[in-house]
Structure formats: C-alpha cells, structure tokens
Design a protein that fits this description.
heterodimer, A: Tetracycline Repressor, domain 2, 2 domains, flat
C-alpha cells in the first residue's frame, strides 16, 4: 500500500522550521507596535511585567501565523512566494502546525492574562480568532477587500499593549488602531502592484486581479487620503504633541505625494521602469509606520522629561 | 538498542530538542521573575477558597 502523505514528507523538522511557522517578520511589527502602545499609556508598568507581556503578545501573534499557515497550506503550495514555507515544503505536517498554533495561542493568552490583566488576555485571544477565523477562513478567499478587514488583526497589538498598562480601551488606543488599519491597504496593494504574484492560480481574489490595476492605484490614493487626518489628528490626543505632529505632517505629506504619483502612472510607464516608483512607495510605507510609532514613543519620552507637551 | 548510523535527520531532531530545552528554560525564568515582581509589590495573591476569609472581606465602617 502506498502512502502519499508519507512520501510528501522529507523528514524531521528542525527548530528553525517551527520558528518560521511564527512568521518572524510579522512578529517584529507586532512587538514594536505593542511596545509603543504599552509605553505611551498613562499608567506605568513594571519593566519585567511589560517585558513578559510583550513576549506573550508576540507569541500570540506567532500562534495566529502558524494557524494561518495550517489553514492556507493548500494555496501556499500554488504560489512561488510561499511554496518554501515549512508545510508546503513538507518539513512540518499540517497536524503538527495546527497543534503547535493552538497550544501556543492558548499558553500566550493565559500567560498574558496572568502577567498583566484578564482583559488584555481576552483581547489577545480575540485578535488570534480574528486573524485565523475572520480573515484566513472567511474573508481571504471570498472578497478583494480581504486585506482591509484582515488589516484589523495587525492593528490590534498597540491596543493590547495599551490594555496591558491600563486594563481597557480609550480614544488614544483606538487612534493607534486606526493608524495601522488604514495604513495596511496602501502598504499591501503597492506590494501587489509589483509582486505580480500568482494569486489567481491560487484562487485568492486580489484587488489587482479582480478590479484591475487602475482601480488598485485609485484605492491606494483614497486610503492614503483617509489615513492622513487620522494620523495627524492623533497628535491632538493625550499621547500626541508638537514632536509627533511635526513627524506626522512630514510623513503624511510624503505618503500622499507617493500615492498621487502611483495614481497618475499608467501600466506602460510602470512596466518600463520595472515598477521602481511602486517599490519606493512600498518601502516608504514601512518607514511611515515605523516613524509614527517611534515619534509617539519619543513624544512620551520628551513629556516624561518635562517639556514639549501641549 | 543504540543507533549505529547517524543521519542528517538526527541533527535536525537534535536542533528541535535543544530549541524546546531553551524555550522551557526561558519559560521557567519568566514565571519565576513574574512571581518575584508580583510578590515584592505586595499584590493580593489570594482568591476565593470556598470559605470566607477575613483578608478578602470588605472593611466595615466604624471597626
């Protein structure tokens, strides 16, 4: 009797394969934004408790990455970019990834609840649920707006960091959420413009495929325009200040200018220069998000030192 | 029975075991550290334990 699943597997997984299941690059964003949420909160947290909380928020994010790879293993096999992930490559079985993700998710939520507070633990559990069930299972394969809603999952970490310190939600934490939430579509769609991935083979509705590249460019510009007032407006909440306002004004002006340039281009011109402008916009979007959260942390530091507030 | 032939998969298995060792040790350090911090700050560690406890009951005025 032949056993296909046995032949698929090339053998034992190493520790690095399990690390790859956690999506370390996404995790670094989670760590940074959760840390920012925790640091700018008006209530102080003991450094060790804060450190532990960040670790378990990161592990919770990693768990949702592992569960996402478990669910998406079938389409990951079909795309060049994802074919070398541990499950499609046959180094980890789907069952192992499922168990690993569920176990890690459970541990991280319980530990966050014990280390910080129950609300933060529940919030982390909700975030994992949102990413795995709402995004991966319900939306990703159904609607080209998938990454808009899915972006909410990536936008929760600063709110969790804030909840670790305060035990609740407030205008400031919602503003940080909105910043990442509205930033995700232009960030991701600019990547889709130049990656030209084989999403259509995998049956994932990507805006560039379903509505065309012109519509995608318009959507990028629209989201950038909605994002700007939110990002600048955050300066006038209790976590903002002149320093943050300056950084936000500069970064948003540059971001809108970049989106405007993308919108004005036609495909022939973009192809002629091998999508250099799209790539520049994508890399700038990373700097944009990093800059805003770094500015929030710096603003808090300046305020703590006793100057620079409103 | 001892393994007589080492295969490349054994090194991968060893890396996984060492990884797990590191994770478990880190977990012990975290929980121990959390305990020290919480006890030092004198947070209430007591919960309901199926009978009233004087340290957990609310204070009555005038007593």
């Amino acid at each position: 009797m032949s056993d296909i699943s046995f032949q698929d597997r090339t053998g034992e997984a190493g520790a690095g394969d399990f690390l790859a299941l956690l999506k370390p690059r996404v995790m670094s964003l989670v760590v940074f934004t959760a840390l920012a949420g925790l640091l700018v909160a008006p209530v102080g947290v003991h450094p060790f408790v804060g450190f532990t909380a960040i670790i378990f928020i990161a592990l919770g994010g990693g768990a949702s990455g592992a569960l996402n790879m478990w669910y998406d293993a079938d389409i990951d096999r079909l795309m060049r970019r994802t074919a070398s992930r541990p499950i499609p490559a046959g180094r980890i079985s789907e069952g192992e990834a499922l168990g690993f993700g569920l176990g890690l998710g459970g541990i991280s939520c319980v530990m966050l609840a014990l280390a910080a507070n129950v609300f933060a633990g529940l919030f982390l559990a909700f975030t994992i649920f949102f990413y795995v069930v709402v995004y991966s299972m319900w939306l990703k394969r159904r609607t080209p707006q998938n990454i808009v809603i899915g972006g909410a999952a990536g936008a929760f970490p600063p709110m969790i960091g804030w909840a670790v310190a305060t035990g609740g939600i407030s205008v400031e934490s919602v503003a940080m959420f909105a910043l990442i939430f509205l930033w995700t579509p232009p960030h991701f769609w600019s990547l889709a413009l130049f990656m030209r991935d084989d999403y259509s083979n995998a049956g994932v509705p990507m805006l560039t495929v379903t509505h065309g590249r012109k519509v995608t460019r318009t959507q990028i510009l629209l989201y950038t325009l909605i994002l700007a007032p939110v990002a600048v407006g955050t300066a006038f909440t209790s976590i903002g200040g002149p320093l943050y306002l300056t950084v936000a004004l500069v970064l948003n002006a540059l971001f809108i200018r970049g989106a405007w340039r993308l919108w004005r281009r036609d495909e022939a011109a973009a192809e002629a220069e091998k999508y250099a402008t799209e790539k520049r916009f994508f890399y700038f979007s990373l700097l944009y998000l990093f800059g805003h959260f770094a500015a929030l942390i710096a603003q808090k530091a300046v305020l703590t030192l006793g100057f620079g507030g409103w | 029975m001892a393994i007589t032939q080492l295969h490349e998969l054994h090194t991968r298995r060893a890396s996984r075991n060492l990884g797990l060792l590191g994770v478990l040790l880190a977990f012990v350090v975290l929980v121990f550290g959390l305990t020290v911090v919480k006890v030092e700050r004198g947070e209430s560690m007591e919960g309901f334990d199926h009978q009233p406890r004087i340290s957990l009951t609310p204070k009555v005025e005038g007593q």
